């Protein structure tokens, strides 16, 4: 890894940014939109950037660029801690001059929840899907919750609108499937297991407050913002039956508590 600038960012070398790992963090549910006051997941993705004052861009597309959602983002990611921005695709002005260039200049791209169908259709119409792939390949950390988590996978089980959950093709950065609110949403776990048994690619079910951290296309670990959060991997056995394996989950608050204890001892 190359040297960092004073702002914590790695410099461009011969026009290409010094290589950083491709990282995606998919929240089963959580972050500032669901756990106001609990910053553990948001702090985790900020730390992954390696920047002391990271550039963070919010994409509220799945909510139709809801104003209240954008306001909450800026409250959760103040300019005192990072360089926040957002891109609006449902407004006459996006808020940035060139969305692709802006996304490629970020350290972290944070995708909000809402309608996965609306998100994917709008992104594809504006070319945001390709820009996000470029950003990921360049080492920009990608993250999000609910629809903002499902979008990164090859296929997703989405249940945003009334009626049964359905399988949707997503961006395909991660070659597997995913379901969110896995243990909390009625029927979500059963629907996902049934879909995998019927031919959906094996994948992951992430519950609220749990987040799947991928490095490249491999799951590195599952982290959580509260104790008891759960995640599972679902595949099929030799007979074609869905088999679920509970995944180990690391509670992010343990380190924070340890830090406070260490400070108390030092004092």
Would you kindly provide a written description of the structure presented here, covering whatever features stand out?
With 267 residues, the protein is an alpha/beta fold. The chain has a single domain (19-266), classed as Rossmann fold (3-Layer(aba) Sandwich). The chain has helices at residues 40-48, 67-76, 99-104, 116-126, 128-137, 147-150, 188-197, 253-266; strands spanning 12-13, 16-17, 23-27, 55-59, 83-86, 108-111, 141-145, 153-158, 166-169, 174-180, 203-206, 210-215, 218-224, 231-236, 242-246, 250-251. An 8-stranded mixed beta sheet has the order 5-4-6-7-3-12-13-16, sandwiched between helices. A 6-stranded mixed beta sheet has the order 9-8-10-11-14-15.
Helix and strand topology:
Elements: E1 12-13, E2 16-17, E3 23-27, H1 40-48, E4 55-59, H2 67-76, E5 83-86, H3 99-104, E6 108-111, H4 116-126, H5 128-137, E7 141-145, H6 147-150, E8 153-158, E9 166-169, E10 174-180, H7 188-197, E11 203-206, E12 210-215, E13 218-224, E14 231-236, E15 242-246, E16 250-251, H8 253-266
């Amino acid at each position: 890894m190359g040297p960092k600038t004073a702002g914590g960012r790695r410099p461009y070398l011969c026009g290409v940014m010094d290589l950083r790992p491709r990282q995606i963090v998919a929240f089963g549910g959580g972050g500032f939109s669901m756990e106001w006051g609990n910053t553990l997941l948001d702090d985790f993705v900020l730390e992954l950037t390696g920047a002391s004052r990271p550039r963070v861009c919010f994409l509220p597309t799945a909510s139709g660029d809801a104003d209240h959602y954008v306001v909450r983002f800026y409250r959760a990611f103040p300019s005192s801690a990072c360089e926040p921005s957002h891109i609006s695709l449902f407004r006459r002005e996006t808020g940035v001059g060139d969305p692709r260039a802006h996304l490629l200049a970020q350290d972290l791209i944070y995708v909000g929840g809402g309608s996965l169908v609306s998100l994917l259709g709008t992104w594809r119409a504006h070319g945001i899907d390709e820009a996000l792939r470029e950003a990921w390949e360049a080492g920009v950390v990608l993250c999000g919750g609910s629809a903002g988590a499902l979008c990164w996978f090859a296929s997703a089980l989405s249940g945003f609108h009334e009626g049964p959950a359905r399988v949707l093709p997503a961006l395909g950065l991660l070659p597997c499937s995913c379901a969110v609110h896995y243990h909390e949403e009625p029927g979500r776990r059963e629907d996902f297991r049934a879909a995998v048994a019927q031919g959906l690619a094996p994948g992951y079910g992430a519950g609220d407050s749990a987040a799947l951290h991928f490095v490249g296309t491999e799951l590195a670990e599952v982290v959580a913002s509260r104790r008891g959060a759960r995640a599972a991997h679902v595949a099929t056995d030799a007979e074609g039956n869905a088999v679920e394996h509970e995944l180990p989950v690391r509670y992010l608050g343990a380190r924070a508590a340890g830090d406070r204890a260490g400070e108390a001892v030092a004092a």
